[in-house]
Amino acid sequence: MMQCSAPQLTESASPLCTRLVLGSGASQEPFSSTWTWAAVVGLATLAVTTYFSVDQLRKNHRAKEAKRFQPDYDLLNETVVVLDKLAGTAAQKADLVRLCELLSRIKQAERRFPALPFGAVVAHIDTYKKTTLPDDFRRKLTTRKVTLDDLLDLSRQQGAAIAGALTAISAVQSEIDRRTT
Fold it and tell me: Which of the four, 24, 39, 113, 156, has the lowest number of CB atoms within 10 Å?
């Protein structure tokens, strides 16, 4: 029995060593053009398959992110509707019940996703809450305990706070859209 060693794998390799190392059907000639083209096609296929696999993984990740963010995105949509309703009136504390519920949920979203700018939304809504008209402002107005200018100023501040909140909500939704598409 003949042993194969590294020095034997030269041009003068025995047919038995060549068959053991390269396989039984191997020739001692350089690579054939058929084999080279097959390798190129195989490598191209591997590259394309890898690209599409990575692309699919990225799409799956974005789909999972979209699913995680969807409830908070809907919460912001609902908040926009409530703020639009409040924008048409000079709000009193009694008008803010629904907005306070939404604010609580937005604060929870802020804790869940600190990287998203929910804090700006919370700050603007808190500012809005501080500018509500007193519940008995009609009586105070007639008894001259509060001036009309003070009430108009509060109303203007409410409008500015609503505009700020709507802008902040738009920024958060844009960031969610950027992360999920």
Answer: 24
